[in-house]
Write a structure and sequence with these properties.
mainly beta; Methylamine Dehydrogenase, Chain H; Immunoglobulin-like
């Protein structure tokens, strides 16, 4: 599928952003590979080099025709819907919240460009190195003729959503969308002429020249062709249960349409070798996933991408399709390493899954659990011994590196959520309904302890065999100093649910939960201090390697890091919006995270990503900002142009607005989700009268306002 770009300038301002792309550092994927996010679009610049984009701002690249894919650093977590390259160097990707990314070096680095809109952008066609067109919701069309230095809004003549756009040359193009709308131009978008072909929604379009093109619909399984540039469309295929989302042709004869058959819940790969006169299905039953887009490299080679990070590839015209992904896609709720080499991850959806590594996560192998119950907690005691807990009171134990997992009697049918061992003999498990069970013989026998609550307990941590904490629903925080013989309440307050806990020693403890904050005690739980995080997302777990260095993880791919005991927390980059459930640090540099859809992430440098400036900057590397800041505009006073710089330390929604002295909003310079980075905005006030104005930056809990003077 071929995608295009969009830009829309604001009336009073021109924005020039100094944003960042990232080197191969920080957190990287170990499972599944190349990554776990749904993919939405794909394009190839030549036979071997291709790109795909998707949820969470993910960008992946292949240089061997799709056999191997590598996740590339991306400066956004905004989901990307479309990607297009004009040549081997120049590419554009577009997505939600008006996101536009630009690359000038073959995708090795991407930098954010400002579209001037928060409307979702669906497709981009990068026609040549200077000219691109983008389409999106509500009929938006954006055009650049100077490689994105400026972007102009074009009138599409419709308010209906536009899903795809394709140009046969710099002037002749067509966009398609909701309710059978097509809009055509023959003069580069100066005039777009609407037309309604049918009432069916069109999701993709491809032209191989000015006359011959195809459109597909998810309604009624429609494939239509035109031979006169879109003046007339002829029905070529119609099968009700088919839902087509992508189409691409290698030449006038050879094409592929992809999607899903909703009746039998199987993928659709529909192939033609005669320009669509006849179509035939391929890869019958290869999966049950939705396929979003296809790129035909030539008559033999093609790649398809889909909703579950699917990548399918053929080298023989579709006679055979191969899955180019590897790994497992069942949600993982917990991960535990006994050292940097030996680790276990567990989870499940309608069944259980146990993954084990002996080489630091380079390879993960599934092991037989002997149960179908979902698994929620694991403790890897050493290279041989491990304990796993889960639904219906299940306890699994291994003494032979997981070659055999033996079911043990827990004495309860409650769901068990977490387990911790302080040595090879002593361990504690917590679960729903206030369940706490304990072993002192390595798991051979278990005995129930009284928690004093019926609320579910979500996590447990012990610093030694006697001193531990457990946390759970309704603000429950319990403490023991005698190995669980007695559990007492530690007054936290807030009444929210806690799901993660990390003990540094008997006094210093951290907890996280559904209130999006981190609480810390330095006196063994007598008092708890709230630490600001700068995120609005739920936090699921926390882990400290020492009293200074810790990581917290949560929903929407949230990763926070501190190096000063939680005084400051800084967001770290990973391109996913999936929830992350568990984190463990081996030391200050090495750590692992487990999460939704089989996600396993690893860092070998504390999760730190250094900033790689975009093409307009130098090649020096600097550390990402660790705080928020709004600088004084310069020059000040100004006439009529001034620049405003600001720093963002965490992923989040950012607004930068201009007000007059009466508090009236004059202009919105920024109104979108942004990653950490240094930004510069150029504000043009040519149409405003002289006077005092205020500009205000909001980013999470950070708010700062400064004054500027327009003097004409």
């Amino acid at each position: 599928m071929k995608k295009k770009i969009n830009f829309v300038p604001c009336l009073l301002l021109t924005l020039t952003l100094t944003t960042t792309t990232f080197s191969q550092e920080g957190w990287f994927w170990q499972n599944p590979l190349p990554q776990a996010n749904p993919l939405k679009d794909i394009c190839f610049t030549e036979n071997n080099t291709g790109y795909s984009v998707g949820m969470g701002g993910v960008v992946i690249k292949t240089t061997d025709g799709g056999d191997n894919w590598i996740a590339q650093p991306s400066p956004t977590i905004a989901s990307l819907n479309g990607v297009s390259f004009a040549d081997i160097n120049n590419g554009i990707a577009v997505g939600v919240n008006g996101t536009i990314l630009r690359s000038t070096n073959g995708g090795d680095n991407w930098f954010i460009q400002t579209s001037g809109t928060t409307i979702e952008l669906n497709d981009v066609d990068f026609i040549d190195e200077n000219t691109a067109t983008v389409v999106g919701y509500y009929g938006i069309i954006l055009r650049t003729t100077d490689a994105g230095a400026t972007w102009n809004s074009q009138s599409s003549g419709t308010a209906r959503n536009l899903y795809a756009v394709d140009f046969s040359d710099i002037n002749i193009g067509i966009a398609v969308g909701y309710g059978g709308i097509t809009v055509r131009t023959s003069n580069g978008g100066t005039i777009w002429t609407p037309n309604y072909v049918t009432s069916n929604h069109w999701r993709d379009v491809i032209f191989i020249d000015a006359n011959n093109g195809w459109v597909v619909s998810p309604e009624g399984g429609l494939i239509l062709r035109t031979t006169n540039g879109g003046d007339n469309w002829i029905m070529q295929f119609n099968y009700g249960p088919d839902q087509y989302l992508g189409v691409h042709f290698a030449d006038i004869n050879n094409g592929i349409a992809v999607g899903l058959n909703y009746f039998v819940q199987r993928t659709i790969i529909n192939r033609t070798t005669n320009g669509g006169t006849t179509w035939f299905y391929q890869g019958n039953g290869i999966s049950s996933e939705i396929l979003w887009a296809v790129s035909m490299i030539d008559t033999n080679n093609a790649c398809i991408i889909g909703i579950n990070s699917t990548i399918l590839r053929t080298t023989n015209g579709g006679n055979e399709w191969f899955n180019e992904n590897s790994g497992y896609r069942t949600t993982l709720y917990s991960i535990s390493f006994s050292d940097d080499s030996n680790g276990i991850a567990v989870g499940g959806y309608n069944n259980s899954i146990i993954l084990r590594t002996t080489d630091g996560g380079n390879n993960w192998l599934a092991q037989n659990s002997n149960t179908n119950y979902r698994l929620y907690g694991v403790s890897s005691i050493n290279a041989l011994n491990g304990i796993i807990v889960g639904d219906n009171g299940i306890i699994l134990i291994t003494t032979d590196s997981g070659n055999n997992w033996i079911i043990q009697n827990s004495g309860t049918s409650a769901r068990l959520n977490d387990v911790v061992f302080t040595d090879s003999l002593t361990g504690t498990i917590v679960g729903n309904s206030g369940v706490i069970i304990r072993t002192t013989d390595g798991g051979s026998t278990w005995f129930i302890q009284s928690s004093g609550t019926t609320y579910s307990l979500r996590a447990v941590s012990f610093i030694n065999s006697n001193y531990g904490f457990t946390v759970g629903d309704n603000g429950i925080v319990l403490k023991t100093t005698n190995g669980g013989n007695d559990w007492s309440s530690s007054q936290v307050g807030g009444g929210i649910s806690y799901s993660g806990i990390s003990m540094i020693d008997e006094n210093i403890v951290f907890i996280v939960g559904s209130n999006n904050v981190i609480r810390k005690t330095t006196n063994g739980g007598n008092n708890w201090i709230i630490q600001g995080t700068g995120t609005t997302n739920i936090l699921n777990d926390i882990y400290f390697s020492d009293e200074n260095n810790g990581v917290a993880v949560g929903d929407k791919g949230t990763i926070l890091r501190t190096t000063n005991g939680g005084t400051n927390w800084v967001g770290q980059v990973i391109n996913t919006e999936y929830p992350l459930y568990k984190v463990q640090l081996i030391n200050t540099n090495i750590g692992y995270i487990a999460g939704f859809n089989g996600t396993i992430l690893k860092t070998i440098n504390g999760g730190i990503i250094t900033e790689v400036p975009n093409a307009a900057n130098t090649n020096s590397e600097i550390t990402l900002p660790n705080n928020f800041n709004l600088e004084q505009n310069y020059p000040n006073p100004f006439n009529p142009t001034t620049k405003i710089e600001f720093r963002i330390a965490d992923f989040g929604y950012v607004t930068l607005k201009i007000y007059d002295v009466l508090g009236n909003e004059i202009a919105t310079l920024v109104n979108e989700e942004k990653p950490p980075g240094n930004y510069e905005i150029e504000f043009k006030a040519a149409v405003l009268p002289s006077g005092v104005y205020f500009y205000q930056l909001k980013a999470g809990s950070f708010i700062e306002t400064k004054k500027m003077i327009l003097l004409k």
